[in-house]
Specification:
Distance between the termini: 28 Å
CATH superfamily of the largest domain: NAD(P)-binding Rossmann-like Domain
Largest sheet: 7 strands, parallel
Oligomer: single chain
Mean pLDDT: 91
InterPro entries: ComplexI_NDUFA9_subunit (IPR051207), DoxX-like (IPR025695), NAD(P)-bd_dom (IPR016040), NAD(P)-bd_dom_sf (IPR036291)
CATH architecture of the largest domain: 3-Layer(aba) Sandwich
Number of domains: 2
Organism: Mesorhizobium shangrilense
Structural class: alpha/beta
Keywords: Membrane, Transmembrane, Transmembrane helix
Strand content: 5-15%
Protein name: SDR family oxidoreductase
Helix content: 40-55%
Number of strands: 13
Radius of gyration: 26 Å
Number of helices: 17
CATH topology of the largest domain: Rossmann fold
Length: 431
């Protein structure tokens, strides 16, 4: 079959694409930024498109032409500069369903979420439910799958946060540590999608995909810590106010393009618990979905997982430190412009040129420091930090080489900073 997978390079979408390829299907994947996906999965036909802009059936007809089935694995956590929940979860799905009906597509698989409810005050769950309603109201052979907390070999978003918290040194911090969680292996999710695409599930099915028993978030974190091979540590409940503060900060970072799993929508979802009804799927399949222990045992952790878990929480710290270092450096240069210019003048640089150089250098420092915390500009800002640092080192070596031997080591200390920029570049990718 020819199958279109929306969100085909996401946590669930990528696993679905891999499973459908192994099943022998011809797969097309759709997403906003497909460059990396094209390199990783060249066997897939990739379509670069923003679902939030495809709001009429006519917009979708060229995309779904020739397809036999559609799997919607796309989604967003919270409204932001790049994400509009109403458009992605509902309005675009409504248009897509209409296009599928017009194009004669047989099957539609909607990957939703446990807790999807049109009356929910959380826009994530309410818009997901509206999308589910659009699918369920269609004439297609549809299946709506609602997974719990999906555990996969890949990790970003909430699953990356779990790993990072589990690897916290000394203890494991957790907000709402007693909230119930039901997980599901991404392998089990892809099995359900495979069966739905093949038509081997009951028609017009809405079903939760969760392990049989719920467990507290604290137990999930402890299981992840053991999986990482780290020594046991106590899970320490954090005050709810601390979680709300972190959510407010993450919401602000979301406006700068960072997609933190700590945003207020995620905390609200955790507040209600991540639970569903395992019984319907167990009856259909004849066996329960595997529990968290079996999911983790199927993908044993190695040193790369420990590196990732430990670096994940350090990433924002690194970026914040670099941003502050460059901002403060630039501001000090402006405040003490005359002193900085005098140093250049004392080494034969003309006065006007020295003043202009100090102003230009301070402005450049402030610019890259501010740009480093804006996600679309972060990579170029970090690269600019490297270029500026190397220029400073070269200029200082030519004009004031004795600074290399100065007691406080002003030039020597730039080398570790340069290395920190390289680390920031190495961990900048989010998925």
């Amino acid at each position: 079959m020819n199958v279109l997978v929306l969100g085909g390079y996401g946590l669930i979408g990528d696993a679905v694409v891999g499973r459908l390829l192994r099943d022998g299907h011809h797969v097309c994947g759709l997403g906003r930024d497909v460059g990396d996906a094209q390199r990783r999965r060249p066997a897939v036909c990739w379509i670069a498109a923003d679902m939030s802009l495809l709001l009429a059936a006519e917009d979708w007809l060229p995309v779904v032409a020739g397809m036999d089935a559609v799997v919607n694995a796309a989604g967003a956590l919270q409204d932001g500069p790049r994400d509009r929940l109403d458009a992605v979860h509902w309005r675009s799905v409504l248009a897509l369903v209409a296009a599928c009906e017009q194009a004669g597509i047989r099957r539609f698989v909607q990957i939703s979420a446990v807790g999807a409810d049109p009356s929910s005050k959380n826009p994530f769950f309410s818009t997901k439910a509206e999308g589910d309603r659009a699918v369920a109201s269609s004439s297609l052979e549809w299946t709506i799958l609602r997974p719990g907390l999906v555990i996969a070999p890949a990790a970003y978003g909430g699953t990356a946060l779990l790993r990072a918290l589990a690897a916290f040194p000394g203890f494991v911090p957790a907000v709402m540590s007693r909230q119930p969680i039901q997980t599901v292996s991404v392998v089990d999710v892809t099995e359900a999608v495979s069966r739905a695409v093949a038509g081997s599930l009951p028609p017009r099915l809405v079903v939760d995909l969760v392990e049989a028993n719920a467990r507290p978030l604290a137990d999930v974190l402890s299981a992840f810590r053991a999986w990482l091979g780290l020594s046991p540590a106590k899970v320490v409940p954090m005050p709810t106010i601390l979680g709300r503060l972190a959510g407010a900060v993450a919401d602000g970072l979301g406006m700068l393009g960072w997609r933190s799993p700590l945003r207020s929508a995620a905390l609200a979802a955790l507040g209600r618990g991540v639970t569903g009804n395992a019984a319907p799927w167990n009856e259909i399949s004849g066996h329960p979905l595997q529990p968290l222990e079996a999911t983790l045992a199927d993908t044993p952790a190695h040193v790369q997982e420990r590196w990732f878990a430990r670096l994940w929480l350090l990433k924002p710290v690194i970026l914040a430190c670099l941003s502050m270092f460059w901002l403060v450096s630039g501001i000090i240069g402006l405040i003490r412009q005359e002193e900085a210019a005098d140093i250049l003048v004392s080494h034969g640089v003309p006065g006007n040129f020295a003043d202009m150089s100090v102003l230009a250098g301070s402005a450049a420092d402030i610019l890259v420091g501010a740009a480093a915390v804006v996600r679309p500009f972060a990579r170029r800002a970090l690269q600019a930090m490297i270029a500026i640092t190397l220029f400073y080192l070269a200029a200082a070596t030519l004009l004031v080489p004795e600074l290399w031997l100065a007691p406080l080591g002003p030039l020597v200390k730039t080398i570790p900073t340069l290395c920190l920029v390289l680390v920031a570049l190495a961990v900048l990718d989010e998925r």
